[in-house]
């Protein structure tokens, strides 16, 4: 997933919440939106807009193009989804009749990201297709060879690529996906017939042993050929460095450092600082990307910053990006155009940065072979973007084609939050529907349940099933390694060690220390090995050992456990804070947001971001009482899981520890605790504006420390702490405080406290607050 405050925090904050209840059978999918009841023969988008509005209306133009998209809730929230199927079909006909040049001349939005995208588009190739209608481009992409398509696609701006997929059926998208391939240099990753894996060894506590054992687990199933990519809980330099080192150590030990890169998905600035302080510790650099200047600001990213980072990537491994349909809109930067075109612009941003990496290599006297790829995190945000398995398939197919037409190796995170109408078995169906389009890679975890991010994605054994059912291959160099390792034989069939994580660990120990005279069997059965594996499991990190009836089946005991956790997550998402628990919070000041009920909160995230007028008045009274005496206000919201707040050993133990450590660090902590019903992360920002925005000392810093329930689904029922500490003059500007200046400490629970002590974790939170 997206790196913390380079992605995960912002994505969580924006996408907290979803749809545990499927729409009623027969209910209209889009009861309101863009109505296009009739069009004239041969009419295009521009002519239609002028006829209906009696002049060119750019907002209506964007809405008509948005109405051509397959229905998704995210477009509906922006008011640009088609009102009904006839309107959608008419929008598509209008778009099909429109010339490429006319669309290029009317960009959805012009900003620095768009300018870079256009600059990276081949002007000569674009001139060659400006007179084509979109219908002609569609026919060309479906009928021509890969070489012919590649000669044209370099001249297609991202907006055009985003629009052309609207005109294609799923089968037509698959056809293009089967035609165009952009393998990474010197590898088969992204080549036809190959389908790789990013091992995603996430830990709720950034424990390097958790990370190590999950990599061993992937290798045990002959999985992992694209990148070893961990999502960190903490973005502290020391923590990120420790993760980079353990991943690098695995690759160096197995002599794979020139075959497979490693990456810690922290913000790119943090990775750069790690490399500066600890040279050669990093390999591939990661960053989440947005589609507009404002969307990228949420990730603390600018065009200039990314170009500067790309200019330093002259070695073998360049840049890795993650994106996702709907992230821009849910972060408040929809700009009146649809999610598909937003997503395409991110790929255009990535294409431009890939060119910059090639320039950096050339300037350094190296071959121009930029190792740059991306993956779409489809489904991670929640049902405010889209809800169903059919929509998930559509989104993935659109993104595969858009990525390929941008010349990029594109992978997927075919995933679901626990509040979408998608379950574990649905994900298998989605994978099978998507695989014919041949994405470059998928995620890979021990089970479908991520132990840190609490969402559902692809497991190692899903890759085994995909290889068997769809005939996809692993990158040749890694396949040879897996054969040498001994988990598959010369024919590629599972050996007796297939799925045996202790065996792979023993081989790692032997490779790391050739002087170790113990046999592989002795290391496998050594008490220290068994204790290390048990400790990983005790921290709530799943390890898949062995398999069921087929090599691709999870062992039955673990399968049942994961399904029980998913069921608990579905229940947790609907839970509310028990009044009896709230009564135990010292000096609680109760406030609430505009969400009408739990369903409204889940389905419409903005309702949980703004406080009701009555709640604002409560805070104004508190502000007047404080008279500027305090610089920290603690706030508690149930977020997506009330149990993560009220479970014994959670906030009841953490809250006093946090207060004590804040005071010990010299902060003046308000004696009251704000308790917000149906609050999201941005509700904390609103509270800060009310409490601090009118203080006279505009240069002083004031903090909101917001304890909020995380997405459910892991055994931890974890909560996070969001910390925001700007100057009063920033709080005074409504809407100015946002995720880009907020830090988060995630994954807190009685089972995940540092050293099993809430005080130790509180110290970490306070240290992170100080760094703000």
Automatic annotation (TrEMBL):
Q: Which residues form the signal peptide?
A: none
Q: Which Gene3D superfamilies match?
A: Aldolase class I, Ethanolamine ammonia-lyase light chain (EutC), lyase
Q: Does the keyword Lyase apply?
A: yes
Give the enzyme's EC designation.
4.3.1.7
Biological process annotations from GO: amino acid metabolic process; ethanolamine catabolic process
Gene Ontology molecular function, alphabetical: ethanolamine ammonia-lyase activity
Record has Manganese as a keyword: no
Q: Any idea which UniProt keywords this protein has?
A: Lyase
| GO CC annotation | cytosol; ethanolamine ammonia-lyase complex
PANTHER family, alphabetized:
ETHANOLAMINE AMMONIA-LYASE HEAVY CHAIN, ETHANOLAMINE AMMONIA-LYASE LARGE SUBUNIT
**Which protein are we looking at?**
Ethanolamine ammonia-lyase subunit EutB
- Protein species of origin: Polyangium fumosum
């Amino acid at each position: 997933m997206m790196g913390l405050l380079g992605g995960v925090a912002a994505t969580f904050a924006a996408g907290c919440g979803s749809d545990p209840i499927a729409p009623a059978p027969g209910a209209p999918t889009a009861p309101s939106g863009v109505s296009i009841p009739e069009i004239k023969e041969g009419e295009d988008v521009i002519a239609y807009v002028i006829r209906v509005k009696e002049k060119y209306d750019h907002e209506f133009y964007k809405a008509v193009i948005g109405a051509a998209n397959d229905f998704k809730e995210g477009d509906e929230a922006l008011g640009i989804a088609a009102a009904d199927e006839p309107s959608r079909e008419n929008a598509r006909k209008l778009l099909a009749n429109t010339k490429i040049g006319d669309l290029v001349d009317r960009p959805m939005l012009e900003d620095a990201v768009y300018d870079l995208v256009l600059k990276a588009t081949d002007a000569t190739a674009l001139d060659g297709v400006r007179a084509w209608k979109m219908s002609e481009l569609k026919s060309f992409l479906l009928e021509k060879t890969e070489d012919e398509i590649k000669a044209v696609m370099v001249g297609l701006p991202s907006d055009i690529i985003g629009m052309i997929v609207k005109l294609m059926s799923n089968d037509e998208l698959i056809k293009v996906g089967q035609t165009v391939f952009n393998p990474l240099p010197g590898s088969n990753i992204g080549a036809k017939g190959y389908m790789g894996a990013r091992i995603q060894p996430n830990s709720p506590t950034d424990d390097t042993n958790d990370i190590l054992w999950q990599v061993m687990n992937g290798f045990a199933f002959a999985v992992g050929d694209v990148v070893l990519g961990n999502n960190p809980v903490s973005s502290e330099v020391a923590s990120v460095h420790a993760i980079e080192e353990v991943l690098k150590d695995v690759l160096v030990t197995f002599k794979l450092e020139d075959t497979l890169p490693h990456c810690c998905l922290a913000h790119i600035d943090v990775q750069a600082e790690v490399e500066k302080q600890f040279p050669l510790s990093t390999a591939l650099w990661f960053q989440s990307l947005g589609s507009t200047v404002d969307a990228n600001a949420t990730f603390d990213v600018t065009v200039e910053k990314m170009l500067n980072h790309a200019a330093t990537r002259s070695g073998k491994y360049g840049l890795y990006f993650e994106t996702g349909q709907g992230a821009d809109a849910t972060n408040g930067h929809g700009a009146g155009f649809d999610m598909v075109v937003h997503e395409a612009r991110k790929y255009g941003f990535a294409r431009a940065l890939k060119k910059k990496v090639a320039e950096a290599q050339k300037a350094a006297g190296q071959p121009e072979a930029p190792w740059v790829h991306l993956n779409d995190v489809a489904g991670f945000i929640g049902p405010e973007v889209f809800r169903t398995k059919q929509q998930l398939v559509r989104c993935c197919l659109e993104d595969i084609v858009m990525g390929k037409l941008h010349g990029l190796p594109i992978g997927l995170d075919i995933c679901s939050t626990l509040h979408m109408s998608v379950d574990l078995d649905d994900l298998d169906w989605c994978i099978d529907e998507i695989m014919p389009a041949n994405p470059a890679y998928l995620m890979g975890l021990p089970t479908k349940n991520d132990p840190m991010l609490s969402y559902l994605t692809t497991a190692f054994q899903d890759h085994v099933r995909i290889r068997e059912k769809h005939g996809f291959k692993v990158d040749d160099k890694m396949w040879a390694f897996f054969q040498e390792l001994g988990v598959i034989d010369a024919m590629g069939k599972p050996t007796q060690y297939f799925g045996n994580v202790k065996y792979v660990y023993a081989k790692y120990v032997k490779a790391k220390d050739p002087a170790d005279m113990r046999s592989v069997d002795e290391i496998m059965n050594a008490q220290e090995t068994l204790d290390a594996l048990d400790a990983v499991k005790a921290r709530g990190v799943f390890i898949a050992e062995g398999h069921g009836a087929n090599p691709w089946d999870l062992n039955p005991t673990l399968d049942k456990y994961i399904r029980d956790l998913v069921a608990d997550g579905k229940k947790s998402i609907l839970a509310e804070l028990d009044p009896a628990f709230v009564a135990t919070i010292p000096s609680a000041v109760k406030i609430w947001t505009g969400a009408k009920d739990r369903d409204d909160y889940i389905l419409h995230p903005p309702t949980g971001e703004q406080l009701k007028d009555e709640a604002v008045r409560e805070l104004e009274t508190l502000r007047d009482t404080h008279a500027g005496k305090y610089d920290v206000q603690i706030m508690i919201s149930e977020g997506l899981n009330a149990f993560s707040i009220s479970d014994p050993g959670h906030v009841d133990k953490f809250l006093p520890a946090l207060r004590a450590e804040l005071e010990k660090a010299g902060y003046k902590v308000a004696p009251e605790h704000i308790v917000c019903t149906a609050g999201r992360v941005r509700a904390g920002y609103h509270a800060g504006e009310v409490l601090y925005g009118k203080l006279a000392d505009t240069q002083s810093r004031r903090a909101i420390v917001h304890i909020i329930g995380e997405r459910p689904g892991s055994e931890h029922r974890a909560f996070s702490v969001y910390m925001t500490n700007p100057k009063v003059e920033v709080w005074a500007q409504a809407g100015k405080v946002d995720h880009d200046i907020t830090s988060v400490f995630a994954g807190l629970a009685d089972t995940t406290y540092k050293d099993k002590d809430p005080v130790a974790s509180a110290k970490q939170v306070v240290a992170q607050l100080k760094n703000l």
